[in-house]
Amino acid sequence: MTDHDFKIDELVDGEELTDKQKKIIISAIESFAEKGYSATSTSEIAKKAGVAEGTIFRHYKTKKDLLLAIVAPVMAKFVAPFIIKDLKKVLDQDYEHVEDFLKAMLENRREFLIKNLPTVKILVQEIPFHPELKELFKEHIGLRIYERLEKLVEHYQEKGQIIEIPAYSVFRMTFSAIFGYLIARYMILPEAEWMMRQRQSGQSSSSCMD
Amino acid sequence: MTDHDFKIDELVDGEELTDKQKKIIISAIESFAEKGYSATSTSEIAKKAGVAEGTIFRHYKTKKDLLLAIVAPVMAKFVAPFIIKDLKKVLDQDYEHVEDFLKAMLENRREFLIKNLPTVKILVQEIPFHPELKELFKEHIGLRIYERLEKLVEHYQEKGQIIEIPAYSVFRMTFSAIFGYLIARYMILPEAEWMMRQRQSGQSSSSCMD
Amino acid sequence: MTDHDFKIDELVDGEELTDKQKKIIISAIESFAEKGYSATSTSEIAKKAGVAEGTIFRHYKTKKDLLLAIVAPVMAKFVAPFIIKDLKKVLDQDYEHVEDFLKAMLENRREFLIKNLPTVKILVQEIPFHPELKELFKEHIGLRIYERLEKLVEHYQEKGQIIEIPAYSVFRMTFSAIFGYLIARYMILPEAEWMMRQRQSGQSSSSCMD
Amino acid sequence: MTDHDFKIDELVDGEELTDKQKKIIISAIESFAEKGYSATSTSEIAKKAGVAEGTIFRHYKTKKDLLLAIVAPVMAKFVAPFIIKDLKKVLDQDYEHVEDFLKAMLENRREFLIKNLPTVKILVQEIPFHPELKELFKEHIGLRIYERLEKLVEHYQEKGQIIEIPAYSVFRMTFSAIFGYLIARYMILPEAEWMMRQRQSGQSSSSCMD
DNA sequence: CATGAATGAGGTTTCATTCAT
DNA sequence: TATGAATGAAACCTCATTCAT
């Protein structure tokens, strides 16, 4: 599934980007993640990217367009593994138990998150402030994924592995638990380096919970 | 424990605040929570508070001082319940099992979070961008709480209720799980109203997981 | 009637303008008249007025607001003499013949134009490019004056002094003739100093046609 | 005399203009007339013309060159009818009375103006702001026409049809009257569609004064 | 204490123009 | 010849902050 991400990576990022455009994107990601969208100035991005300020606006009509150009692909990539055709069957045969499914999902999305840490950080930080982002998120996650997961929940409920409560409650709880954990673990805690008194480095441990 | 919060409330918030000062704080909280610190202008806050632009700076030397004046108290209130003297004994007698302790803590901090939603939102949103905030957080949470919790972990480890891994690992996992959940459940999901297709209202359910 | 203009002058211009505001208006009039609205930069106006650029925007939210603040009063002043109550009677007794009325009007508005030359110039130059200006003009000139003049035309038609064609045709012809003349004479020709080979100066001659 | 205009049309406009050049000119005329020279951007012209931004500058070194390329021909065309050799004789035999001459001139130049409305509009709008334009105008109108008209005035003064005042005064008055009228009638009034309550359409009436 | 006019640095964006392709 | 990416100066405008009243 990882290679899935990869192909989409190429499709979305590599598509027809001039050299300077790439530099702009990279610089913007760095600065947005570090200081936040509002607190980052376009002149700063330009300087870091080694281009003239005007160049940014040739490629992205506004500063917000630049934000969207950064954040939209990570949404697309985020949903990719859920879009596999006939999801139900595939999962059915792969994962007898919900726990297996959840484990796999956690693992899979954790990898994704680590690989796209700064971009996801920007997305999570900025989503509350930009209606456009909310809309994008709704389209990608809401309308595309939610209904698939709903079926999935019902499937496992039929198998008696999930209690009989509304699917959206299951979803809400699961989402809060899994993504809450990922966000806290990889995006909030790492800022608090002071906590790491013993082992410093972020060993790419593969255990599910560390 | 709720009344505990309350006393501190008075101590910190009510202490010598002029009428205009209160209006400023309220307006600032509203705007910061809605648009973020950087994207909120002081003139906007002044207008919403019904005071002159200069008045803000009479009370808070800089815009960042205003942010700190808002965010510092919620940190203080957040740690309050952990500061009870002789925490060990108290907890020891109250909670035979870790699960009970965790349940109580989750419940207690959930109440706190709900009561201070906008302010906590601001704190969580802005902490990554302001070294001063990180420092404050470190002082409050890090140095005051962490060592207490460490002892607590060791206490439950001695009782055989927690496996023998470094205390900081236990802390990290627990923190990620509990606060990740709270953040996702109360600060991220509520933005996505679209998800609520069936039951709309946020019934103040008291079950631990909803 | 001249003193009429004057009182309005005070009312509109002098009303509550800070010292710097006046300087800004004066500088803006000068620059707009000389180079046109679009070709004049706010920084230029600020420099000429001896104020910071930000000061302009404290008083006029946008550059266009500044233009309107300059141009709106001259419209108001322009219509003033037509707003005298019971216009019909007054004119009736004053001017037996249309020619007398037209002469008086030409003379009167000529004085006005000369006294407000730069501002009127700006108005005439910019009106084609700004829908807001057109709207203002329509309100002031169109709806207020046109109907009064219509009655006037009918009045003189009854007296047999104007041929029986639609009032708006009379108005259009008269307006074109009188104001076309004034514009050409006082706003276009003076730019062509080369033509004045003999007598240079613009003596404030009072003959009706010179 | 109309066909006169035509030949010059070909001479000036058609001379060696590539397809793209024509499109650029047409787009520029449209935009300049609508928004003014300063408020029109070259990129806008390029887009409207369907050419690359750089293409404009391949043909016209600067934006102002483009303006001149548009405005210079209409000046040339404007003077054309006055340049007929032996003007004096021709006019002498054609028009016994000044009134006839003026009538013919008004009629003739009105046709010209209507046929070239957008370009003349640009010329009239921009002339006050561009010394180069004033210079061009002076060369064309001033030095070429003025002296011819001076003779004409003297001719009619000798015939006793014009009072004995300096020729330049006659010229000024006549110019103001005729061109003021044309400008007001065809370039200012048409912007005020609100005035046309009765007859909407601009019937190409041929009466001298409508 | 409170005000709000004033500031000037800095923000985003536009624009005429150049130049390698 | 035509293109359009790149430029950087300058445009309009915002903002946190100061200070005389």
Automatic annotation (TrEMBL), chains A, B, C, D:
The keyword DNA-binding applies. The keyword Secreted does not apply. Gene3D superfamilies: Tetracycline Repressor, domain 2 (1.10.357.10). Keywords: DNA-binding, Membrane, Repressor, Transmembrane, Transmembrane helix. It comes from the Bacteria. GO terms for molecular function: DNA binding. The chain crosses the membrane at residues 66-84, 170-189. Residues 18-78 form the HTH tetR-type domain. Residues 41-60 bind DNA. Coiled coil: none annotated. InterPro entries: Homeodomain-like_sf, HTH-type_Tx_Regulator, HTH_TetR, Tet_transcr_reg_TetR-rel_C_sf. Pfam families: TetR_N (PF00440). This is Transcriptional regulator. It comes from Mesobacillus boroniphilus JCM 21738. The lineage of its organism: Bacteria, Bacillati, Bacillota, Bacilli, Bacillales.
